[in-house]
Each structure stands twice: as C-alpha cells, then as structure tokens.
What does this fold into?
Amino acid sequence: MTHAATKPALIACLLALAACAQPAPPAPPVIDPYAQTAAGAVFQGNLPGGVIGVEGSAEFFRAQVGDTVLFPADQTTLTPEARAILSRQAAWLNRHGNFTAIIQGHAEETGTREYNLALGARRASAVQEYLVAQGVAPGRIRTLSFGKERPAEVCSDESCYARNRRAVTVVSDGGVGL
Amino acid sequence: MFHKLTLAPALAAILAVGAPALPAMGQTAPLRIEITDGVIEPMSIAIPAFHGDAELAARVRQVVADNLTGTGLFREIPAEAHPARPAGFSDAISYEEWRAVNAQALVTAEVTQAGEDISVRFRLFDVFTGQPQGDGMQFDARAADWRRAAHKIADQIYTRLTGERPYFDSRVAFVQETGPKNARIKRIGVMDYDGANIRWMTDGASLVLAPKFSPDGRQILFTSYDSGFPQIRLLDVASVTSRPLTQDPGAMAFAPAFSPDGRRIAYSREQGGNSDIWLMDVATGGQRPLTNAPSIETSPSFSPDGSRIVFESDRSGTPQLYIMGLDGGEPQRISFGDGRYGTPAWSPRGDMIAFTKRIGDRFHIGVMRTDGSGEKMLTESFLDEGPTWAPNGRVVMFTRVTPGGTGEPRLHSVDITGRNMRPIELDFAASDPSWGPLLP
It folds into this structure.
C-alpha cells in the first residue's frame, strides 16, 4: 500500500511543525528489486504504482531495470556487472514483447570524433548481441552510436569518463525508428 | 604593365577566368622570404593607405595587412613611421624614404567603386633594390565580394614574396557549437579562411558532424542524425539544400571524404558493430567495401592523385594510420611511434599527412611524410583534433578543446613548421574545420 508509509510522517508533522522544516534526512539506499538466481534475475520488489510507472513502462525500465551499462576505458566487452543488468533488460524485454529497443553507444571525450563513433557502435552492438543471446528477437533492437557527442557527465576526469563509456537501452512501445 | 582579372561572383556556376598566372619577375633576384624550420625574422612590409574610395580602401587595406601579418612571416611598419604617401597611385616611389624606415617591401593600391562594381589595383615594390616586384594587377569584382578582392591581392603578395602557392582566398566549413556540453546544438557554417563572412548551412535542429568541402568548394559532405541515426548527406553550398547519400537503416554511415575529382566518396560504414571503409560513386550511389576487417576502420582521406587512401585502423590493437590503394591489396601501416593516431589528412601537395596523435593524456596535431618518416608534432594540449590543410599545404587548421564542464572547442591554425599557432577569430565555439580550395 503506497500511502501506508507516508501517513505516520504526516501525522508527525502535524504534531511538531518545526521539526518538519528541518532538512530532509538522507535518502534511503536504493535496493535492487531483482535477485540473481540460478534461473536468472527474478523481480522481488514491491511495485510503487503511480510513482515510477507500471512495470511495463519505459519509466520503469529506466529506473528499476537499469538502462545503462558501463565499459572500461577503450573496451567494448561486457563486464559481469553489465551482464547482470543486461540479463534483467532481456528478461524485461521478453516479458514485454510490444516494446522495441534502441541501444545508444557512447564514448568518453578523449578520442577522435570518428573513432569514438565507431567505438560507441561496437559497445551498442555488444549489448545487442547479449540481449539477442538472451532471447530478444533481433528485429526488436536497433543500435546507433553517439560517440563523444552526448556525455552523461561533463567533467574531464576519470570519474566522469567512467560514466560516459556506456551503452543506454532506450525502450519504446511505439516501434520508434524500427 | 598591368594584368587585369575579373573575380567571378562567389560560387557561380561557370568561371570565365582561370587562376592568374604569376607575372614575370624583374631582372634582379626577387625579394624573397624563405620559410624554413628555423626561426625566421619577419619581412618588414609597408602598406600605406590605399588610394581611391577612402572608406572601402581602408577596409580592403586592413584585410590585406591582416592576411599577410597573420602568417607570421611579415611585420607591418606602422603608419606613423611612414614617409608621405605618393599623391597618386601611379606616381613614382621615393625608395630612399621607405629605405629610411627599413621597409623591405612596399604595397601601393587603389580601390574604386562604381555602383555595385569595385576595382582594385595594386603594385608591389622591392624597396632595397628600388624595383617593382612583378607587374601591377587589377581585380574587378562586385562590391559584395570586396573581401575576396583583398584576399586576391594578399595572395599575390604572399606568393611573390614567399614562392609558395596562395591560400587566403579560400573558405572553411566548420561546426558551430552552442548549448551545454551534454546537449550541444551543432550547425554547419562556411566562413572565409580568416573567420569572416559566415553563412549558415544547417539550422541546428539535427546533430551534424565533420563537414568536408568538395574539391571545387561547391558542395559539403557531412554526417547528420536527422533520421535519428547517423547518415551522410551532400549539401549544395549555393542553394543551401542537402540530400541523403546513404540511407541504409541497418548501417551507420559517417566520416565521409571526397575523392580529388569530386565524383566519389570514401566513408565509414558500420554494421553489427564493425566499421569498414566503403567507396561510393556520388552520381550512381553504387558502392563497394575497400576494407573487410573486424577492426575499426575510419577517417579516410584521399591522396591528391586519387589513387590511394590514408585511414585509421585499430587492427594492430591501437588506432594507427594505414595507406591502401583503391584496387585492393593489403594496407600498409605508416605510423609506428608511441601513442594512438587518428584523423589522417593527406596534404594537397601530396608529400605529407597531418594527423591527430594521443600520447598519454595529451593530444597533438602532427605531420609525417607519406612513408611515415619525418614525424613531427606541431601542437600539444588537453585535446587537439582533426587537422585540415590550407590549399597550399603550408598551414593546417584544427579543433582545440578546453577541459571541464564548461570546456568548449575553438578553431586554431598552425604553420607546418610548428610556428604561428593562432586562434581563428570567432565569437562562438566551433569544431571540425574543413578547408576548401583556393577560389578561382
């Protein structure tokens, strides 16, 4: 029940208004709603209906399944962490056959524009191959590369580069671009 | 004697007059500044106020002076030091007075305007020998093309004093960048080589990358995301309209380059994550692969005779430069130094290849001979990228990017001796320059 947790907080505010003007406490840690099992990733969380969207929505895919996988510098092979995320992506796509996916490959800024386009394409393709191997029909997936044109983070050191070397899976139930 | 030339309207379809022949030199050894790798002393040149229409003459004179001093090869003698200017353009030169202010070369000119037409005449003198250097010349042009007339004069002076081919009367295609680093708006523009006379070729609605001028300067190849996916488009500069050259939905297309005859393009075609270099006939759309390797092959650039292509490949494990013929055969690797090489650009003279090189966390623009020998770095910064050659093969322009969240690209040029690094004067961020041909 979505409201169950908020009602006590509201009551607390009514009782002590001053306390509610204090800065909000740190956000609770995000708990991965999926559990890795021998059968693959299994969804175990509660669905916060109306907040992130229903399970079969692009919003849910982005926020709960995880739309982004990261790559080490100059690499286009998938890390174990990336494979775990992609297994969840594949499971979700296999549950929601009305969705198509565009995989956007990206690279950090320290490379030439054209090489980075090709590098981003390799990353997007690595993701596509993994999803297809997990049973997603190839015709539902299209790839492209933005090279270094669309960084997620804009600083010029490894903390940002690590987050820019990525592939982002964008799902749509409109068959966009396919 | 006087040579008279008419400037064709900019980018007109037919050009009535070919490139001007170099006039004969005088009897004495010509005044000459030798461009070598060593430190040079700039030649001192006097460019007193031009005769004729005062306002227009002042503008033309300033462009001529800026063109020449911008090379780093000339030092202009300030007007305050000048002796009295001859009363008329055709009056005799008092060489002794110019020698007294240490002028080595002297330029005189006259600019007249009649309606929409202008006429510019100039003479060049070797002050120390007291001789004209070459014949006088006259350029007739439309008033709107006054900067081109100025570039033509400066080109003549540059050529007579350096022995090098001219390059000032040329244009550069580039990408303007606005907006935050993670959501850049990019549009293609065309400017005079010195950053003036900007015309916009795209509107910024779609992401566009890496324009490349055709050998005749009338068309521009570029990569566009207007379909949602990178594809190559061909833009007609005069009409500012473009059409797709590639539209295979299953293959990304990028990094296009024209062949020297303008009839074919080489480009990178990506399928299933693998990029190879393909050759396309522009008129028919017929195409075939030139490489077939699981590695990344990109950034092709033709040799001036059109028989070979230099490109970038990571088949050895890191990006390196290779040369291949158009008729197949194993590509030959030409880069063997430390670091990663990219974006090779074959010099219009045919003798050199400019490139981007990354060593550690620093980037350089460098040049090497076509066999890979004589490698020399011209620049160093956080991120330098994408050299393009001036039509005479003496200067390269490139993109320099500053680091950080507010970092942005700027265009710079540098002489192939490594001297005279300078930013192109633009009041916005810009990248991906492509230097077009010398205009007729």
